[in-house]
Specification:
312 residues, alpha/beta, Rossmann fold, 2 domains, 5-stranded parallel β-sheet, 9 strands, globular
């Protein structure tokens, strides 16, 4: 199946079908096995990729750089303030220059239209490391974690609370695609991206998944197999916006008592960084139910799988 990805771009789950998403997850799990067994997998030795980060990063940057190193890829880290983009050079010009020099581009940025623009002007594969509506390398890592813990996707219930942003939308698409129920706990007045909700509901009709957006925290937590937390606000939002969001999400904090509403076998996931004492308590993050560091490690393996599938 790799040949159908080779040389293409990895931008969002909405662009992929179930078979493709599961293939990338299984390929990533295979790379994790190689890593644990210390089996060399520098299949792309000699390639040089550019890494453009317009947002700060701990997990995404380090996961990409280690993944690339293990695959034999040399990375050039690019900061926007060091590029002529900061002086107004059009993105299409930057992309066409990078395309002449690199074998691929890994980009973490703001609007999703930016990665789509890069894709338009580059022949080399473009890998999305995060935009406002998609975080697909996180999505593959999350699916890896769920499969490791449960051995399946279908029939599970995932309850999500946190800002309606890239991780929420990515999780919503893969849950609907794989037949997982998902309850998104969201305060009144905060509206999701309707295009992505419609896409998720279309996929859910095929798989039988139930995708809902609710204000009922207790009902959403009931029978949850996976409790997925996220920050109440995102990078780049104003102090005023952050204050409003923190107040709106306050009733949905995940505490040890809240976890008791879910199944006794439930796991707690979080893409990190977590604001301890805000969306989740320290007690939950440090509990045996927490799999946040398994999830973080899987970012490295997910990126290996994705690069291996899409690299020329």
């Amino acid at each position: 199946m790799r040949n159908q990805f080779k040389g293409k771009d990895f931008l969002a789950f909405k662009d992929l079908n179930r078979e493709e998403i599961e293939f990338l997850t299984d390929l990533s799990l295979d790379f994790k096995k190689k890593f644990i067994a210390r089996e060399p997998h520098d299949y792309f030795k000699g390639q040089v990729w550019a890494a453009l980060f317009e947002k700060n990063s701990t997990r995404t940057r380090n996961a990409f750089q280690r993944a690339a190193a293990d695959l034999g890829i040399t990375v050039t880290y690019l900061r926007p303030d060091e590029l002529q983009m900061s002086r107004g050079e059009p993105l299409k010009d930057t992309c066409r220059v990078l395309d002449r020099m690199y074998d691929g581009l890994f980009i973490r940025t703001f609007g999703h239209e930016i990665v789509e623009e890069c894709s338009k002007w580059m022949k080399a594969p473009v890998i999305n490391g995060l935009t406002d509506i998609a975080h697909p390398t996180q999505g593959i890592a999350d699916m890896m974690t769920i499969k490791e813990k449960f051995g399946k996707y279908e029939g599970l219930k995932l309850t999500y609370m946190g800002n309606l942003y890239n991780v929420c939308y990515t999780t919503m698409i893969f849950a609907a695609t794989l037949g997982m129920d998902m309850s998104i706990v969201c305060p009144a007045g905060i509206e999701p991206n309707q295009m992505l909700v419609d896409e998720a509901q279309k996929r859910a009709k095929v798989t039988g998944a139930h995708i809902e957006i609710t204000q009922d925290f207790e009902q959403a937590m009931k029978d949850a197999d996976i409790v997925y937390g996220n920050a109440e606000y995102s990078m780049g939002q104003t102090d005023e916006e952050i204050t409003k969001l923190k107040k709106a999400f306050e009733p949905y904090q995940v505490t040890a008592d809240a976890m008791k509403m879910a199944k006794s076998t439930a796991i707690y996931m979080h893409c990190l960084p977590a604001h301890r004492g805000e969306e989740v308590t320290d007690e939950v993050l440090e509990s045996p139910q927490s799999v946040i560091f398994d999830e973080a490690e899987n970012r490295m393996h997910s990126i290996k799988g994705i690069i291996a599938a899409y690299a020329n």
